[in-house]
Each structure stands twice: as C-alpha cells, then as structure tokens.
Amino acid sequence: MIVKPRIRGFVCITAHPQGCEAKVREEIEIAKAAKNPNGPKKVLVIGSSTGYGLSTRVAAAFGSDAATLGVFFERPSMKGKPASAGWYNSVAFEKAAHEAGLYAKSINGDAFSNEIKAQAIETIKADLGQVDLVVYSLASPRRTDPADGETYKSVLKPIGESYTNRTLDTDKGEVSEVTIEPASQEEIEHTVKVMGGEDWELWMNALDDAGVLAPGAKSVAYSYIGPEITWPVYTNGTIGQAKKDVERAAAAITKAHDCEAHVAVNKAVVTQASSAIPVVPLYISILFKVMKAKGNHEDCIEQMVRLLNERLYGGDLQLDDHGRIRIDDWEMEADIQKAVADVWPEISSESLNVLSDFSGYQNNFLKLFGFGLNGVDYEEDVEVDLPMPSAE
Ligand code: NAD
Predict the structure, then answer these.
(1) Is 317 contained in some domain?
(2) Is residue 44 part of a domain?
(3) What's this model's pTM, rounded to 2 decimal places?
(4) Fewest Cβ atoms closer than 10 Å to its Cβ: which of 84, 215, 292, 342?
(5) pLDDT by residue (tens digit) across 13-22?
(6) Residue 279, ligand 1, Cβ within 6 A
(7) Structural domain count, the chain
(8) 65: domain CATH number?
(9) Residue 253's domain spans which residues?
C-alpha cells in the first residue's frame, strides 16, 4: 500500500516501513563512526523500539558490537494496516544487526508484567548467559502493577498550584496559552507508580535472582530536568516526582546488587513521549534553533553515543551533586538557556518560523514515523506486513 502520514494531535497513526528503516540506518552510521571497543557486550534494553531506548540499542550494537535483547510494546501490522513505527524500527534494527553478524532478538509485550520479565530471562539464559548492561527507557502513560493487578495512569500536571504558560499546537503551528490545574495527591502517587523506579527495581531483582546479571554489570535509566520555564509542569510536577523516585531506585539497585545503576539526564529531543508534554514542544523548537546556530545540536543517537562512549564506558562519568550523569550539559549551557529565555516572551504564531526551528521540529516529528527521509519513494507501493526477523 501507499503509506502517507495521518497526524492526529501529537501522534501520527501511520508509519512508513522503508522510512523507518532509513532512519534506523542513519542512526547506525552515526554509531559506527564512533566505535568504542570498551563498550558493553551483552545488553538488555527495556523500551528499545523508539527514542532514547532505540538509540542506546543502536549505539551499543554498532558502536561496540554488542549483542542486544530489546523489549518494547508495539503494534504489528494487522488487517493490512501499517504497524507502529517502533515495530518497523525494530525490524530494521534486527535486520541490520543480523547483516553485521550481531545477535539481536526482541520481545514485544508489556514490560511491566511478570510474564515479559520471565521471557526476557529465559532468552538471556538460553542465548547470552548474562547481560552486562541493562537500559531502562520506558515511557508509558499507564502501568498495570502485577502485584495487585491495578492499572495506574500517569498525568503531566503541576503540583500545588495551577500553571499557565505558552504552548504550541504542533499540528496547527499555533502558539497559545495553556493553564494546567494541579494534580491531586492520588494523581501524583499514580504517576510515580507508572514512571517512577519501582518497575526498574523489579527488573533488576528478577534478573539478579535468575543469575543473568553479570558481576559488575551496569544499568541506566533516563531523566530530564530542562529550563525553569517548564519546571512547574516537568521537574516540579508529577513527572518530576516520578523521576526523583527513579533516582531513589538507582541508589537502591546499586546497594542491592553487584551493579552500578545510574540516572542519565538527557537532552530534550522530539520523541513520541516528549511531543505529548504541554509547553515542551515550544521550548524544543526554540532550543533547536539556538543549538543548531551554536553547532552543538544533538538528537537521540548523538546523545547515546556520547553517554556510552564518553561517560558510562569512557571512564568519565562527570556526575552532578545528585550523582546523576548530565548528558544534557550542552542544552543547559548558560548562553543556550539565556538565548531561549530571551525568545520565550516574544514568540507568537506569526513569528514561530523566524524565532524558532519549528520546521526542524516538524521534520523530526515526521521522521519518528518514517516520513521525510531522503531516498525513500513515498509514492511507491510498500509491503506493510513485516515480520520480526528474530521470530522467523
Ligand atoms: P519513547 O516514547 O520514544 O519510547 C518509549 C519506549 O517504551 C518504546 O520503546 C515503547 O515501546 C516502550 N514502552 C512503553 N510502554 C511499554 C510497556 N508497557 N512495555 C514495554 N515497552 C513499553 O520515549 P523516550 O522519549 O525515548 O523516553 C524514554 C526515556 O527517556 C523516558 O524515561 C523519558 O522520560 C526519558 N527522556 C526523554 C527525553 C525527551 O526529550 N524525549 C529527555 C530526557 C529523558
């Protein structure tokens, strides 16, 4: 079929298989150009199909020839409809890894469940023996806790008082004002249940109990801090509480296991998760313009190559006062933040394309779903029903 983008708010409900493959291959070339022989060798990536998790998988496999097992929750093609982008990304990743002689398998299912943890452990036991790096990169709006069967939902809300700021309707290209009411205590607790560190700990306990965690292994989960303008809805909001809990979990994992667990604070990038956060896409559009002008703009793959090669496996963690790895260092440079803050009060729908890199944001967004890639003929009929190579 001929696949075109069909955007609904901040999601695109279609994905292009060849475009996703082209995007994954672009990331692979970047990872290959920065080889790190000291990198991880056997890696489990939880949340490996899109965004930061996918790029970590690419950086480990093609930067240090790592065997990778990926876990994700994606939609294969059904009834002739295109699969989700993360499915196509994972098909493309496995195909490229197998061509390069690298082990790559994937598990599609709910990472919060006991069943998927057990399946991952069985696969590691059978194929890899142990893993020396566990990457935890889930971003989910809900979690069913296997302990009580209850489904918790996360919200992106401020805490204590309502928050009003400028926001961007990325579909219409309109800047407007948004007011978000504060979260209830229950909403805060539920967001911590979904996006906090509990499930990361459950994974690490299960892996260690099963003997599939290599001695001296490393683990990393991702966080975000960003500029003060977004703090009420991010760092000081419900999601920020969850991220504090991820930091708590990192310390608990390091204490409980022969494993060095870290939180890496990453740069703001366009992903399916970040495009859903109010205010953040406007900040990202301005940030991209400022960072591109300075020449230090990065996407997920450049961030993850730097994280693995320079920090986690480069002997130079550069931890902050809270013990976190700051790979958002370039984003947070004072001149970058000042330039964004100067533009912030000025920007409007009319000046959006002049004062920000909104077109860069849009291109990035479309690329998440495999659209707008060079060398892909979008008028061509493509096969949308692609099986996962490792399942064949
Ligand atoms: P993303 O939406 O691109 O990726 C989420 C991944 O989680 C996908 O692989 C998806 O399949 C998987 N997933 C979701 N629910 C699942 C489930 N129940 N079972 C199995 N897999 C599931 O998100 P992202 O932006 O790459 O976020 C990853 C992490 O990086 C998050 O912790 C996020 O807070 C953090 N982070 C993101 C940014 C940003 O700007 N996007 C910045 C800093 C940190």
Answers:
(1) yes
(2) yes
(3) 0.98
(4) 215
(5) 999 999 999 9
(6) no
(7) 1
(8) 3.40.50.720
(9) 7-391
